[in-house]
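Methods — Computational structure assignment.
A single polypeptide chain was analysed. Its primary sequence is given first, followed by the predicted tertiary structure written as structure tokens.
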Amino acid sequence: MRHFLILIALCCVTEKSHAKVSDYIYPYYDQPSYSNYGTIGLIQMPSARMHKGGTIGFTWTHAEPYLRGSIMGNPFDWFEASYQYTDVNNKLYSDSREFSGSQSYKDKSFDAKFRIIQEKRLIPQVAVGFRDFGGSSLFSSEFIVASKLIGNFDFTLGMGWGTISNKTISNPFAKLDSRFSSRNRNIQGDTQGGEINYGTFFGGEKAGIFGGVEIFLPKLRGTRLKIEYDSTNYGTDGEGYLPVAQDKRINYSFLYPITENFHVKLGYIRNNTLSFGFSLSGNYSKRSTGIRKSEPPIQIEDSRVYREVVNAEKAEYLYKSSLKFLTENKIFMQTGNVRNNKYEITYAQSKYLNNAQAIGRITNILDQISPEVIEEFSLVAINADQSMFAVDIPRAEYNLYKKQQKTDALLQVVDIYKPDSKQHLDHDFRPPTKLPTTIWKISPAIRSQIGGPDGFYFGDISLAFHSETLIRKNFNILSVASLGLYNNFDDLKLASDSIIEHVRTDIVQYLKNSDKYHVTRLQANYFMNPSKSIYTKLSAGIFEPMFAGYGGEILFKPFNKTYGIGAELWNVRQRSYRQLFGFREYSTLTGHINFYYREPRTRVLFHLKGGRFLAEDSGFSFNFSREFKSGLNMGVFFSLTDISKAEFGEGSFDKGFFFNIPIQVFFDQYSRGASGFGLRPLTRDGAQSLVHAQGLWSTTHQANKARIEYDWSGFYD
């Protein structure tokens, strides 16, 4: 500790003789860096730093006896959440060598950190955090930490409890309440692991002090030196199953940013161990996130000719010209009508994630080819033959604000509303549609099973055939079939130990018996929109790898409100392990009442679901997520049902997190596709819901005035 204090003093003196960070060549100096735990911090210790909201990161670190992989997300500037998967190689997977085989112990844990004070000129940034608060408690700890940037030195000082307490000072919370005087950790290996241990938070007779400094080295492309005092308790009652030798508490690390988003690091910890790793992160919050697009709004050659032809009172030329140019832009015109100097069209599109951008692209085309007598454009979006929204755009104002890109001013004069679903049926122009029609694609697919005594990773690679057949505009059939190319499932043997119906935990059987070819989905959907605020869907077929059946949804979703109320009911039967067209004996009736609320300013969605789940347990599931302008969506969920903790098994209750990244951030073309990732610490049978495609809330996401207004800044893009 004495050496650490001397180091801090020297850094403070040295800082006075140095210039500011901005005076040096420091690319990316304003980005916080990751600790060995996969969270923002120093080396082993946390800091108060945060990534900006909308950031997703992945880290990998090796520091004997731990090999850690971590996924981290920042839904907000003030909140950090992460999931770690740790290989503890000084302990077998279980107490039974026969059961463990060659597998070392694997630990899954969740971490969270909250910023409580934002850094200002004379005030440090302060945060409170929790490590491994919902896992086995192997690394369970809490901390309060402050960080302050002074020149090219970022200082950190904090207090830790649990595994990051070297018990150097009395616990200040124990003076407030006696319950903080003790810390009763979960028994390692207990089947109730996964329950949040509220009673241990900030508990224990003693706490620990940690700290350090992150130094930006001048003219070395953002290279950083980290030095810290490590308060981790590596003893028998501290971190890990077995004691870890610690010769000194001072750790050192160098971090080198290869690119803005990719960093490598090399460190020396405990005065006896090398650590090394890398991190990959990116911020996907902004609308323009990703690679610059190569698809500007089209400029029609000889557009004057089109306007003159239409002026000859041949409206069909306007309709056909609109159909031609919109189709070339992957926007599909459904109907068209000219009446009283107003040109109204209905359209469907699956190209632009930002609906305001699609509206702008359509208006740009119509403005170039429409005669001067047209004073207003009325655009109606259609999905599954259901009207989503309508926007009336005055032509004069559109052109007035176009040069200055004044989207806010334009928003004040447009009219956004929900039209009647049958309103377009009397339009003069209705291009013939060839039905049924099928669209399809072939893409690679990966299935994975991570962790277990049989091996760390099992997976397969296959070719997936996706198709959508449109029977009618409101009636489709979705299919996904896969052909296996490679797998390592032969050694996958661990069977389910669940004592309730195996609605999910037979995953091993499903993977092993469907390795050559299988059908993931063969689902028929019929949509109806009986009123402006009510949407319905009937579905039947193979919904997911484990269940097939029939059922439906209904959703009440007012256009001018930010909430929705719905219900769903499904009669399903469990599929055979081969995942073809056979079935097992188990069948059930499952259904839920759904409540949705989207906070319009932050785009935070609250989804509460209550009802009967697949294993015939009853209860509630809560989903909390945030959507950013780029289309990135990240969130967490947890569920509580009427089955006991013993019946649920290890993990105690269902929980996890997820994120979906829009594909277009990685390419120079616009796309509405997304790549998703979801993770729960353990696969159990309790609180499991049916997975079915094209749910009503997602299908009707466009049908909301606040959403269109939020995206309006992309209108002229």
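Note: The longest strand covers residues 583-599.
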